[in-house]
Every structure is written in structure tokens, then in C-alpha cells.
């Protein structure tokens, strides 16, 4: 047999002094479930103790003191079974066997149950249920073999006028052990499944975040590469476009061009690491503020009435790209989750920052479900990453009337981003 230590599980790890004596169902969420084992054990002990005592005195004609000792020793350990069922079994099993031997010397006078009175069987079955919920299969098998072996030995000592019930106890205890063990294993499987789903959800969120960062890095590569290409061309042609360029200045321009070309090579090498085998390079320039109007028109053609208030002020390419993607994701969410809902897109600038506002009203009719049940999950994640990239702020959330609001503030200067 194994020790009293509970089984090693992902929930509690190796049994130790801190968790070895946890009560049954101690990890349950409901307080009523945590109290259930204590309630059952208390009811069994309170009910079986006087019933067993009365039965031993009146039917089996035992001395009152001896009967009290046996009844207490058979019922009280049931309370211990809530925390340490195997220790309780050691006590109750030994007392039950001793009690059966004591009943051999009793003058029954009439046919009675032997070797185990009915209260003993009820208490033993409750103990078996506690064992099945806590102990390992090997321990349960040892418990049942000990029970079956003891009943087999006692069968040879059975008085001639007694109704033997040892086989009944062996069979019922086996059923109780198997049933409780099956319930415990089902609980363990469900708990591990929930834990695995939580891990998988966390991994999906992490993968989505990494994919979105990679996507942003690829897009920013195109923006920065354009500027670096302009620097390279200007530095290479400066000696031909400008008259009377001193030799040292010519060498400086040549150095600037070489540095820019080296930087472009390093960026392309980095981009090769970020791209996977299924990703193809973008052939078109990255969109910006000027393309938001066409994006709004395309959304309107899809059946979403959209009002657009453009901004005449310019913005750096990285900020313009972030604004475009934020509007794109916000309108895509309107199409997915609030089809037919009127929306409004507004861009404004105070000279220091660009404000992007996308607000949609509730849909005319509540949709039966989202149009897309397997979205990419890049919507809010992508917005947050793009806003964080340029040092801005993002505010999203539902409106009191059932609509939704996305507001982003994107700094236009490097000083405002720090």
C-alpha cells in the first residue's frame, strides 16, 4: 500500500506537508461543495454512532462499555476520512475486524448479521467513497484486497446461527471504490482540459501579438526603406547637382550614401527573418492619410453608411500608416459585428498630434451572430501595437446606446512621442 500522501497531480504537484492533508473538494469553487464532505461525514458519524451502540447492546447483547468503545471507534474516524481517508481506513478496518471477533463470543440467541452489522457496512461504504476520491489505483486495489481477504477469513469463523454478509461488504466496497475513482479521474480530465484550454488561449494571444508586430515591422520597413533610398540617391547625385563641391564634402556624401546602402541591406536581412515562407513581399506603396477616403468609400459600397471628415494637415508616413490601419480595423469590426450600423470617421490635427475617431451606432436590427466566427484576432491588438509604436494613446469601448467608439491620438513630432 502507498503512504497517506495524496496523488501527484498538475494541480497540487508532489504531495508535501502543506498540501498533504487538504480536505476533499477543498479546491472547489462553491463553498457548498467544499462543505459537502464534512456534512456527509458528520451526518454519518452522528447517525451511525447511536444506532450502532443501540444495536450492539440490544440485539448482540454486548456490555455497555465494550459496545460504546466499538461504536465510537467505528463512527468517529469517519470525520478524519475527510482529510486523511487512508488513516481513517486503517483504524476502521482494524476495529471492524476486532468487532467481528468480539461478536463471536456474544450470545446472539437469534440469527443476526455477522460479521458486520448494517451500520458498519454503511459507514465502511462512505469511507470507501472518500478513499476513491483521494487515493491512487494501487492503494484502492490494496484496500479492496484487504477487505475481501478479511471477509474470506471471517467466513470460516461464522457461527452457525448467523447471517453472513461478508461477501456483500466485499462487493459493495468494490463498487464504491470503482465509482469514486471514476468520478475522480473524470474530474482530473476536465480540470486538465480547462487548464490546457487556458494555456492554448494564452498562446493564441501571444501568437497574434507576435504576428501583428511582424506585420507592422514589414510595413515600416517599406516606409523607412523609401526614406533611406532617397538619402542614398541624394548623396550619390549631390556632386553632380551642386557646383564646386569640395573633395572633402564629396567624400562625405559618398560615405553617407554607403552608410545608407548598408543600412538598407541590414533592414532587408532583418525583414527576411521576420517573413515566413508563406509571406510575399508587398509591391504597392504603404497607404497613408490620402488613402483613407478610398477605404471609407469601399466600406460604404459594402452596405455600411459612413460619414468621413478628413484632415487637411499632413503627417509623417509612419503616423499616416498607423492611422490608415486603425481606421481599416475599426471599419472591419463594424462590418463583422454590427452590419448595417451607421459609422463616422473623423480625422483632426492640432499641430502636435493627429486624432483618429471611428464611431458606429447600434445596428438597425440586432444580428443573430457575428458575420465572421473565425476572425484573425488582430483588430484591437493591431491598434494597440500601432499606437504604442508611435507613442500615442488609444481609447476603445462600447457606448451607452449600444454603439462602439475607437479614438486614437498619434503624435506628429518626435518630441511629442517621447
From TrEMBL:
Cited Pfam families: HATPase_c, HisKA_3
Domain Signal transduction histidine kinase subgroup 3 dimerisation and phosphoacceptor: 212-277
Catalytic activity: ATP + protein L-histidine = ADP + protein N-phospho-L-histidine
Coiled coil residues, start to end: 192-219
GO MF assignments: kinase activity
Transmembrane feature ranges: 35-53, 65-83, 112-133, 140-157, 163-183
Annotated keywords: ATP-binding, Coiled coil, Kinase, Membrane, Nucleotide-binding, Phosphoprotein, Transferase, Transmembrane, Transmembrane helix, Two-component regulatory system
Chain ranges of the Histidine kinase/HSP90-like ATPase domain: 322-413
EC number: 2.7.13.3
Annotated protein name in UniProt: histidine kinase
Originating organism: Streptomyces evansiae
Lineage: Bacteria, Bacillati, Actinomycetota, Actinomycetes, Kitasatosporales
Amino acid at each position: 500500500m502507498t503512504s497517506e500522501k495524496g496523488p501527484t497531480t498538475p494541480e497540487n504537484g508532489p504531495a508535501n506537508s502543506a498540501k498533504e492533508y487538504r480536505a476533499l473538494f477543498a479546491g472547489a469553487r462553491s463553498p457548498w461543495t467544499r462543505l459537502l464532505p464534512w456534512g456527509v461525514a458528520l451526518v454519518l458519524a452522528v447517525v451511525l454512532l447511536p444506532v450502532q451502540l443501540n444495536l450492539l447492546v440490544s440485539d448482540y447483547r454486548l456490555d455497555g462499555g465494550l459496545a460504546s468503545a466499538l461504536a465510537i471507534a467505528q463512527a468517529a474516524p469517519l470525520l478524519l476520512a475527510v482529510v486523511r481517508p487512508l488513516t481513517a481506513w486503517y483504524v476502521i478496518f482494524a476495529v471492524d475486524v476486532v468487532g467481528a471477533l468480539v461478536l463471536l463470543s456474544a450470545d446472539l440467541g437469534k440469527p443476526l448479521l455477522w460479521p458486520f452489522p448494517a451500520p458498519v457496512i454503511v459507514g465502511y461504504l462512505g469511507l470507501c467513497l472518500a478513499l476513491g476520491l483521494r487515493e491512487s489505483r494501487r492503494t484502492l486495489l490494496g484496500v479492496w484486497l484487504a477487505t475481501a481477504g478479511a471477509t474470506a477469513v471471517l467466513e470460516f469463523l461464522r457461527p452457525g446461527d448467523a447471517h453472513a454478509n461478508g461477501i456483500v461488504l466485499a462487493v459493495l466496497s468494490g463498487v464504491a471504490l470503482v465509482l469514486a475513482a471514476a468520478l475522480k479521474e473524470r474530474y482530473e480530465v476536465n480540470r486538465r482540459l480547462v487548464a490546457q484550454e487556458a494555456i492554448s488561449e494564452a498562446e493564441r494571444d501571444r501568437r497574434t501579438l507576435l504576428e501583428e508586430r511582424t506585420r507592422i515591422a514589414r510595413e515600416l520597413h517599406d516606409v523607412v526603406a523609401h526614406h533611406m533610398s532617397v538619402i542614398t540617391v541624394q548623396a550619390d547625385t549631390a556632386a553632380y547637382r551642386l557646383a564646386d563641391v569640395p573633395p572633402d564634402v564629396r567624400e562625405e556624401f559618398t560615405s553617407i550614401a554607403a552608410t545608407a546602402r548598408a543600412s538598407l541591406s541590414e533592414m532587408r536581412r532583418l525583414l527576411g527573418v521576420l517573413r515566413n515562407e508563406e509571406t510575399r513581399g508587398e509591391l504597392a506603396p504603404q497607404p497613408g492619410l490620402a488613402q483613407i477616403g478610398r477605404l471609407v468609400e469601399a466600406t460604404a459600397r459594402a452596405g455600411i453608411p459612413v460619414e468621413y471628415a478628413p484632415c487637411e494637415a499632413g503627417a509623417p508616413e509612419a503616423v499616416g500608416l498607423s492611422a490608415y490601419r486603425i481606421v481599416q480595423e475599426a471599419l472591419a469590426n463594424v462590418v463583422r459585428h454590427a452590419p448595417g450600423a451607421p459609422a463616422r470617421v473623423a480625422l483632426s490635427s492640432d499641430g502636435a498630434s493627429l486624432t483618429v475617431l471611428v464611431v458606429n451606432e447600434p445596428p438597425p436590427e440586432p444580428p443573430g451572430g457575428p458575420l465572421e466566427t473565425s476572425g484573425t484576432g488582430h483588430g484591437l491588438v493591431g491598434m494597440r501595437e500601432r499606437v504604442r509604436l508611435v507613442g500615442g494613446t488609444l481609447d476603445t469601448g462600447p457606448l451607452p446606446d449600444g454603439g462602439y467608439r475607437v479614438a486614437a491620438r498619434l503624435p506628429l513630432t518626435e518630441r511629442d512621442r517621447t
